[in-house]
Amino acid sequence: MKVAVVGCGYVGLVSGIGLASIGHEVVGIEADQGRRDRISAGSPPFYEPGLRELLRSELERGSFRVSGELRLTAEADVVLLAVQTPAGADGAIDLSYLAGAASAVSDAFAADPKRQRVVAVRSTVVPGTVDGVLAPIFGPEVAVASNPEFLREGTAVQDFLHPDRVVVGCRETWGREALAELYAPFGASLFLTPPATAELAKYTSNAFLATLVSFSNEIAHVCESLPQADVEDVLGILHADRRLSSSSETGEGRPEILSYLKAGCGFGGSCLPKDLSALIAAGELHGHDLSLLRAVRTVNEGQAARVVASARDALGGLGRTRVAVLGVAFKAGTDDLRASPGLRIVDECLEQGASVVIYDPLVSDRALDEYTERGSVETADTLEAALAGADACIITTNAPEIAALGELLEGGGYPELVVVDGRRVLDADRFDDETQLAVGRARVTPLADHAPLH
Ligand code: UGA
Question: Which residues contact 237 (CB under 8 A, 6 or more apart)?
């Protein structure tokens, strides 16, 4: 099929190249000349494993190309809209880019107004967007659909090429059929729904992941008051429930969802926090107070401060201390700093008077200019360099380079260093003294010092 993808950002580029790789003829429409040049030269403008290779092979085969000409959408059977849907000041979604792109596509269609076409939204949008905002922009010969993506940064190419579900929210039969045909080579479960169901399903998925993380962190808070309860053990027992796990003793085939049932520094990234807020705002618009989801957000917003408080309490205050923050990307395997818990931890340390040294194996110094130019923040190229002269270190992601801290500590080289394991990557049994702290584990102090929990 002939496909046009409007917006060659993260979602658009992965979708466009992925569709090209399964036999479609794809043009990516991108307004930014610099970005177009990079893509045409075979260099994706962001890091994603496997994407560069796939881009190069599809450019070579001629199945994918990039252009700035929106009028090319008129030649496509299916147009995918993958432009940004940022959060507005009140957390509600800003649909102006999407509506602008849809209007431009509608203008392009005027060249051949009678042709039946399909326009599908890949961007995450609140329920009612297709029916209330986008469909009215087009004439009746255009089927407008919600076709949300479920890609994770770091595994986006694999996620696209091996989808667990394809969701098509569309009223028109021909629109459903065209999108079913587009994704047919994947053989994935296909959900054909009204647009609002598809739109809400995407938010529901991300809100669910966010809920698991905040739930785990809330259980961690309780564990921190109970000297003999460790959140890793508590949640480990939950994981073993056969309704959540496979019966395999080795843990192989362990449902991936269990990794969200883990205490840490809170969730971040460009999707979970934004989508949670957009869903809460959309609920309010319809007169619903989504109190559970508001609590999920509140727990998340407080988590960085809780993690920093462990270091502060152990050091008796952070003023004039040096804290190494190990990991600032929002998760391991990416250099993405958007809504990163690691950066919240940096901010919190600075507010409390510490100077900060940041080590993150994937994040470039340039990306941290805004921090380092302020003073009080430096970057380090190695774990050892970050720890040199530090009073405390806080682990914020489970990158293997950071988990290597375990071996350094075992070597006994940092007897005075306060370690806060904010991602539970260190083996708790091996680091059992006053300077080794972890999310979801009480500080090691005599039992009598702790009040029982009522
Ligand atoms: C998330 C969803 O996982 C995707 O299904 C969805 O398509 C995407 O948002 C989107 O809406 O576009 P992503 O933002 O890449 O994908 O990040 P995740 O890997 O889900 O991580 C989100 C947060 O959860 C991170 O802060 C991460 O540290 C945390 N997380 C992630 C965990 O706590 N445990 C994990 O196993 C993975």
Answer: none
Amino acid at 428: A
Element (H or E) spanning 143, and its range? strand 142-146
Grouping H, G, I as helix, E, B as strand and the rest as coil, residue 289 is coil
Residue nearest to atom 3 of ligand 1 (CA): 152
In this predicted structure, the answer to whether residue 347 has a pLDDT above a threshold of 80 is yes
pTM, rounded to two decimals? 0.93
Instruction: Give the residue, by CA position, lying nearest to ligand 1 atom 29.
Output: 267
Of the candidates 8, 170, 265, 271, the residue annotated as catalytic is: 271
Quick check: helix, strand or coil at residue 189?
strand
Would you state the pLDDT for residue 374?
A: 84
**What pLDDT, in 10s, does the model give residues 132-177?**
999 999 999 999 999 999 999 999 999 999 999 999 999 999 999 9
Closest ligand 1 atom, CA of 155?
15
CB of 125 closer than 8 Å to CB of 278: no
Q: Mean pLDDT across the stretch 401-429?
A: 89
CA quadruple 70, 74, 76, 80: dihedral sign: positive
Testing ligand 1's pocket by substitution, the residue of 206, 258, 274, 439 carrying the most ligand atoms inside 8 A of its CB is 206
Query: In degrees to the nearest 10, what's the CA dihedral of 41, 47, 49, 51?
Result: -30
